[in-house]
Amino acid sequence: MLEILSLVAIGLALYTLNASRNSAQKLGEEVMRLKREVEALKAEGVTAPVGTTAAETAEAAPEEAAEEPAPADFASPWATAQATGTDEAGKGRSIFGGEPAVPAEAVVASEGADEAVATASAVPAAAAKPKESFESRIGARWAVWVGGIALALGGIFMVKYSIEAGLLSPAVRLSLAAVFGLVLMAVGEFVRRRTLPVIANAFQNAMIPGVLTAAGAITLFAVTYVSYEFYGYFGPLTAFVLLAAVSFATIGLSLLHGQALAGLGLLASLVTPALVATEEPSAWGLFGFLSVAWLATFAAARIRRWQVVPALANAGMALWAVLYLSEASTVAVVPLLFAMLVLALGHGVIWPGSITAEDVPPATGAASADPLDRLLAPPAVAVSLTGALALTFPALVLANAVPALPRADYGFAAIVMALAVLGALRGWAIYPALFSAIAAVVGVGAMVVGPGGLLFDDVSILAPPALDDTAALPLPVPVIAVVPVDLLLLLAVAYAAVGLAAVRLRMAGSSAFAALWSLIAPAVPFAILALSFLNFGNLSFDLKHGLLAVALGLAFLAAAEVFSRGRAEEDGPFIPQWALAAGGFAFLVLALHAMTDGLATTLGIAFLGTAAVFATRLRRWPVLPWLMAGAAAIVAGRIGWEPTIVGAANLSKTPVFNQLLAGYGIPAALLALSAFELRRWPGTQIRNLLQALASLFLLLTAAILVRHGMNGGVLDSSVPTLGEQSIYTLLVIGASAILMSLDLKSPSPVFRYGSMVVGGLSVLSILSAHFVGLNPYFTGELLGKWPFLDLLFVGYLLPGIAYGGLAFHARGRRPMPYVIMLALTGVALAFAWVTLSVRRYWHGEGIADWKGFLQPETYTYSVVWLLLGVLLLAVGSKFDSKSIRLASAGLVLIAVIKVFLVDMANLEGILRALSFIGLGAVLIGIGLFYQKILSGKSGTGEKAELNAEA
């Protein structure tokens, strides 16, 4: 069977060679005939009269050109013209199946004119590519590939047969196989030289010369490997050199035979180091060879404008780098770093190199007019994307190896900066720029949480044993691995410099790319500096991180000033201005955290935001007022992290006049001042936002001071309390008011429905927490020593007043059911405050239910409820609010029911009599009040405005 397959393979090779020679001869004769025909037509000067169609012009062609039949696949130019015609402008068609041919000259003849005017013809339109037939697919394409496979198998089977039969010695067999491979490559080159280029255009993926060359290359590669691995004819060095020579020769021949052969050579070069093993492997030899192979592949790709093979080369380099870092017993970082730098340099210089969008025509139709689409789909996108990934993955592996692997930190920093420089210098390098940012932030994060960072600062190893036997047993010795903080800071500075240079370089060519770099340039150094400070800096006072943050902040603000020169306000938003100014502000905030602590940091951030607002007097940058909003958000975050501002141990116990007044009140005052400063600012949104934030901070200041005062200077507790929940309730009410204010100034469905959703959630919180879960009557929580400024004031009266104000603000601006819900919630909170205050009067700080009720206490409830009902009636009449008047009626009804059911059963003597006397008097007074305010001047008319819904 093997003999038959071998003979078939040889027969196929001879047949392919003969067919290729005959085809080449026939095609050569056909092209020469067509060339003579075209020269004859030019010599005769055949022109088309005015109004003559393309078909009539074709009929006027010389008869000898039509009599001689042309092959079906390659028709004559006149037969093509008859089949396709020409357009109205007289554009010619391509001779070979729609490919552009030599432009035809159009001569326009005019009646009565003595001279003919020749006009230049336009570029001919490409004819639609005909669908390939089944016969062509099977006969011209698959037969070629199957034939190539058969040739390669034939060579392998010949060697196998000779081994089994013992006909020849191993050296002779391998020599014959090598000769067979060389013959296949020679035949491939011979066929290529005799074959016209038209075959390459018609059957690009089934070129016979390329298949023959590939079969020969595989044979030579196999022979070399077998000679080394199984017979030991070659040593490792010789085998490596021969395999590399075959690989490089294959890559070189791909320039003649196409991209598929380049892929074969690339694959051979990538597997060569894995096939040849040495007792002393050299990292320099490995990555030096891979770098040369990669450069050869990219050089060929540059010449032929390939994308698939260089993308595969990038993937192969990344795979080798990751495998080496993760699997090698001894890792040398410098050779790997050399290969990665070669990778970055090759992308910037060789391929894609200096290519632009104009150098590569779009694949389909015209290029997109959207700058973002052009940015995300640059020329040779597959090459740049895979190249960026090939550099990113080894960089991240190196970052994870710090500090266990020597020089891994420097290798990581060098690769990141190489990616950043590549992204800055080339207009197509969007993906190197993006992945440099990702690798920098993720890599530094991996370094600071690894050994030597916060998560592993207690790593220890055993000390070496003592030399004498009497020594004590070895004790664990702590080892703190040091992450190079100075290198991280240097990386932040270098990245900032490259980022600013990139913004300057890209502004002239691509505004979208410049905008992207303006976002990356401050973000990446800020992340690196912040991670370094939080993990390795002195959180109380760190001069190194603080001064560097100040320098970078001023640098980015200066860059925003430089790049904004010459731009008018009407030019629209300028993203570099926004990004660089915000980045500079962020660095200054980080400097405050590094060089100050506690209250000074909070106030410094608020003053910094105010300074940005007042800077609008010098520069009318739209970003400056929004920096104050960012400062308020940071202050709010600090308050959420540490409500005491200075720490619970350092918080003064003096009521009102303590650090809380400054920490909460001064930012509120500065927000109000900033809103006033922006009273003439063209945009109203930021002014309204600052006003709402000022209101929220003022409300929060009042709540926090009350809680501090009523708890004896203790602000927070791990056990949930009513005071803590009250602060949350006030915050939610303030948020609802802020959203409503924003909606009134800048209508938005988000603000409109968001304010109502927040208000509804706060009402649910009141019902569940204030009335049931955290009610001091049920929990027994002490109310505080101060009779009025106590827990009841914060938990019930203050939220009740806030709900009343919110309901008043929402009148006419929100649906009536929502307004009634807010008003009734405020009334319910006021009722709870009055009721629980009565119980506090009779029982002191503790009002728990287990204490029962006193007879005077029961009577007091009736009196207070009736008075509260009268007060609500007056308020509802004052503000024309029917909902409050109805709440008053309901409260009076509750008092009446209590008097008749509770007081009658529990009160005795004078208290029972007084209860009923007071109830009757109040009810008569309420009746007289209603008769007075609801009567018209005639005594019968109703005042419609008092009965109106509120």
From TrEMBL:
Pfam families: DUF2339
Region spans: Disordered: 47-71
Coiled coil: 17-44
Transmembrane parts of this sequence: 142-159, 171-188, 208-228, 240-262, 282-301, 308-326, 332-354, 375-398, 410-428, 435-456, 476-503, 515-534, 546-563, 575-592, 598-616, 623-641, 656-676, 688-706, 726-744, 756-774, 786-806, 818-838, 858-876, 883-901, 913-930
Record field: compositional bias (Low complexity): 47-60
This protein's UniProt keywords: Coiled coil, Membrane, Transmembrane, Transmembrane helix
Protein's UniProt name: Membrane protein
